Amino acid sequence: MQAFTSLFTISNLVPIVAIVVVLAGIRRAGRQPLWAEAYRRLGRNRAAIFSLVIIGVYCFVATLDSITWKSNALAQPESVITHLFNAMHVEAERTYSAPFAKMTTGEPHPHPLKGWHVLGTDGSGNDVLLETLRGCRTSIIIGGFTSLLITPVAVLLGMLAGYFGHRVDDLIQYLYTTLGSVPGILLNIAFLLVLGPGLVNLCFALGITSWVDLCRLVRGETLKHRDREYVRAARALGVRDIRILVTHILPNILPVVIITVTLNFSSLVLSETILSYLGIGVPAGTGSWGNMIDAARLELARDPIIWWNLTAASTALFILVLALNVFSDALRDAVDPRLRSS
Amino acid sequence: MIGYLIRRLLYSIPILIGVCFLTFVLFYMTASPTEIARRNLSAKNPTAQQIKDWEHQHGYDKPKWQQFVDTTEGLFLLRLGRSDSVKGERVMTRIKESWFPSFEIALLSFTAAITINLSLALVVAYFRGTYLDIYGTSLCVFMMSVTYLVYIIGGQFVFGRLLKLTPVAGFLPGWESLRFAFLPVVVAVISGMGASVRQFRTFMLDEMNQDYVRTARAKGVSEAQVLFKHVLKNAAIPVLTTSVQAIPGLFLGSILLESFFNIPGLGNYLVDAINSQDFAVVRAMVFIGALVTIFGYILTDISYALVDKRVRLE
Questions:
Q1: Does A317 touch chain B if contact means CB atoms closer than 8 Å?
Q2: At a CB cut-off of 8 Å and minimum separation 6, what does A113 contact?
Q3: A50 and A104 belong to one structural domain
Q4: Looking at per-residue confidence, does B179 or A272 come out higher?
Q5: Statement to judge: residues A163 and A240 lie in one domain
């Protein structure tokens, strides 16, 4: 009963709501001719469908890892994945062990293992498969939440700068040129020092540097549309500026924005690992491929080489980023065949 | 053109002031001067008077806006000042000491990357539509999807530990430095290869669909001539601009490489300064970084106008 009631918390509601909103948005967009055509083109692209399925699997794992409950009143809330692993008796060991091994590695007197580890265990005895699966949530949150943070800001500022020009344009251009003049990695480090470590703060720090390009792009696009005939006609009819921006220009630049955001997603996922490697990424305790790779740097120097940790994390990362890259390329080609890169 | 340059240079002044302001605010938010003083004073339990003296010596006791005006003015006159650390050495001295490793690695990787990527892009564009092209572009996407870290760790493991061809990390002056620079350069080239080759290939293919190419072919110019003479010349414009844009990145962009390979260059100096909260150094280095970046943008515009006669700077 306790387990059941602890299921209904706000933190469990967030992933569900996010998924429902995304799916509803995709369905709704499908009613418009442009996106309906894009979906049809995507559907014919086998690589795109395949990578979409892979992204879906990662999102599914991330969702499973986000939904938590307590097994009893005193216990910490644990995610579905952790409960599953507990149910299968995959317990923490003493130290390293190779995949499928029966004894620990790296100890003078190897101890027999308590459980069975498909991908072995890391230095503190945690199951590598579990750690790898927990990294999915972190990556998806970093890509998704950061995009969610920067897109409204970049679109709003970019459209204002492009549409109104003059003073507004000068101010906004000044803002992003100043931010763009400082090397990105430094801004990330500085903001993380100010905000303190944490997954959400990491998203904010990454957002500070990544909205600039999107804003510049939106500004350029708005500038292109500002003097098109349909906008002039709307203005001649006495439509207010805000309405022109929201109902006329925004729908026309939205495809470009969506393509750019998807293309940007994978680089956000990749930058998490680099920041973790510099020691300012995701705090310890949150699953993170960056932290796993960072730890593996020293393990390669050991004799027997501890390779499974590094391999698991980097393969999981590689597959996700590859799927994201292939899918976003396919999406770009499907939405606007003129932008096709081949 | 001269007028345009003057305007651009004047416009860069408010941007640089903005950068200084940003650094100033960010650092005051992370640490107060008292904390920095406490950390840097060598005595274990500094008295209040010692801290006050330290703050006075480094100018942290003035009103905040006065500090900002003073330091910004100093930076604009390229008086970079002294470090906040115990030794209090001049920032300029450190820059003079450590610019060379950064420069060497940046220059080598820049030239190597451009040569290799451009040649590969030409090959792929020449064989467009064939299996070579398809596999080549797929390989590019694969290479783009591997994180920087795996290239670094893999490179160190294969070249440094297994083959023992190069040192794993570190740096030595003189000719010896080439041995240490090899691995960082290889990692820099390979990690950027996927994205660049794909981009350069797009530039080439964009040009191949132009009318003048069809005319050249119709006149009986061979495919290789079309590619190397006509297309390459025109595709040089976007290639040049993207490459020139990368130059400011060379100055500080190797921050990551330098800290991973433990190279005593400018990037490493900066990362150390951030970690020890040496505000004076960070301020100076970020200022120089911004200066180089803005200079790079102006350089991009100039090179654009020089290569393409249709572009007028106004």
A1: yes
A2: A93, A97, A101, A102, A103, A104, A121
A3: no
A4: A272
A5: yes
Residue A105 and residue A92: Cα distance in Å, rounded? 14
Q: Of A126, A152, A173, which residue is a domain's last?
A: A126
Q: In angstroms, what separates the C-alpha of B299 from chain A's closest C-alpha?
A: 14
User: Using one digit for the tens of pLDDT, what is the confidence trace for B47-102?
Assistant: 777 777 767 766 666 777 777 777 777 777 777 676 666 666 777 777 777 777 88
Structure token pair of residue A165: 């020009």
The model's confidence at residue A322, banded by pLDDT at 50, 70 and 90, is very high
pLDDT in tens, B205-250: 888 878 888 888 888 888 888 888 888 888 887 887 777 777 766 6
- How far is CA A241 from each of CA A18, A216, A232, A237, B136, rounded to the nearest angstrom? 32, 20, 11, 11, 48
- Record the tokens describing residue A253, joined without a space: 């630049």
The parent domain of residue A175 ranges over 5-90+127-339
The three-class DSSP label of residue B252 is helix
Is B307 within 8 Å of chain A by CB?
Answer: no
pLDDT digits over A97-123, tens only?
777 666 677 667 777 767 777 777 777
Domain tally, chain A: 2
Domain-ending residue, one of A111, A126, A141: A126
Tell me, yes or no, whether A290 and A178 share the same domain.
yes
CATH no., domain B101-278? 1.10.3720.10
Here the tokens at position B164 are 């023992």
Residue B164 distance to chain A (closest CA, Å): 13
pLDDT of residue A319: 92
Structure tokens at A304: 């027997």
Q: For residue B46, is pLDDT > 70?
A: no
Same domain, A117 and A264: no
Give the amino acid at A302. Answer: R
Based on the domain organization, do A78 and A135 belong to the same domain? yes
Say whether both A133 and A263 belong to one domain.
Answer: yes
- CA dist list (Å): B263 to B100, B180, B181, B252, B259: 11, 9, 9, 13, 7
Is B298 near chain A, with CB under 8 Å? no
Q: Which residue has the tokens 């249709």?
A: B310
Q: Is B286 in contact with A186 (Cβ distance < 8 A)?
A: yes
Give residue A318's pLDDT.
92
- pLDDT for the residue A342: 43
Contact residues on chain A for B255, CB-CB shorter than 8 A: 183, 185-186
ipTM value, please give it. 0.81
CB contact under 8 A, A190 and B30: yes
Q: What is the pTM of this model?
A: 0.85
Residue-level length of chain A: 342
Q: Residue A291 maps to which CATH number?
A: 1.10.3720.10
Query: DSSP per residue over B110-125, as a string?
Result: HHHHHHHHHHHHHHHH
Residue where the block lists tokens 């970020």? B286
